[in-house]
Design brief:
- With 200 residues, this protein is an alpha/beta fold.
- It has one domain (3-199): Vaccinia Virus protein VP39 (Rossmann fold).
- 28% of the residues lie in helices and 24% in strands.
- The protein has six helices and seven strands.
- It has a seven-stranded mixed sheet with strand order 3-2-1-4-5-7-6, with helices on both faces.
- β1, α3 (58-66) and β2 form a beta-alpha-beta unit.
- The longest helix is centred in the N-terminal third of the chain and has 14 residues, at 3-16.
């Protein structure tokens, strides 16, 4: 990613931070995206968790409420977005392709509809895996490339097919799986969203 493009992406999200309708600061904890992360990670007491591309921290907030003993870090490229993140969550402004953490720094990490903005996808996946400890779990939730065009997107955004991210995660993780998921648990998946789950 060029510095110019990174600046444009950051500016776009800085400008969008005030748009509560399209970029809300809360999320219904019953939404399956949230449930999947909670189920996959299990007990997070005294564990360190990274929300990579956290936006306003809506997922991180639910994790912290469910697991008060967890140490949750919310990372985003936009400082304006991070200003909405609750104080009990550690905030960090950085790019997904250059995470400012040591290797094996986290017990778990997730990226919900944020990898699509990383541009250098292979590098972002490698970084996400690098900062998770061996045995730790990684969850990526993003949109299916086969549905590209159904939503308005900025020119840098990318959606993924199952095998593409399975292969990238497989370079760094011992177990990788993926499946179609729905926004709501009691609704059949329509193919728009995919979840990738990996164990390092």
């Amino acid at each position: 990613m060029t510095p110019e493009l990174e600046k444009r992406i950051r500016s776009s999200f800085d400008e969008s931070a005030s748009d509560e309708e399209h970029f809300p600061s809360t999320i219904d904890p019953r939404i399956y995206h949230v449930q999947l992360i909670l189920e996959t990670f299990g007990d997070l007491a005294e564990r360190r968790v990274l929300d990579a591309g956290c936006g306003k921290g809506r997922f991180a907030k639910v994790l912290k409420e469910r697991h008060p003993g967890a140490r949750v870090v919310g990372l985003d490229i936009s400082e304006a977005m991070l200003s909405y993140v609750p104080a009990e969550i550690q905030r960090c402004s950085a790019s997904l392709t250059s995470l400012p953490f040591s290797s094996d720094a986290f017990d778990a990490a997730y990226a919900t509809e944020s990898l699509e903005h990383a541009v250098a996808i292979d590098l972002a996946v490698a970084e996400l895996c690098r900062v998770v400890k061996p045995g730790g779990r990684i969850v990526i939730i993003d949109k299916n490339a086969e549905h590209w065009g159904k939503l308005k997107t900025p020119e840098w955004e990318r959606w993924f097919n199952r095998k593409e991210l399975e292969k990238l995660l497989g370079r760094h993780c011992r177990q990788v799986s993926s499946r179609f998921i729905s926004y709501w648990e009691d609704v059949e998946p329509d193919g728009m969203f995919l979840a990738w789950i990996a164990e390092k």
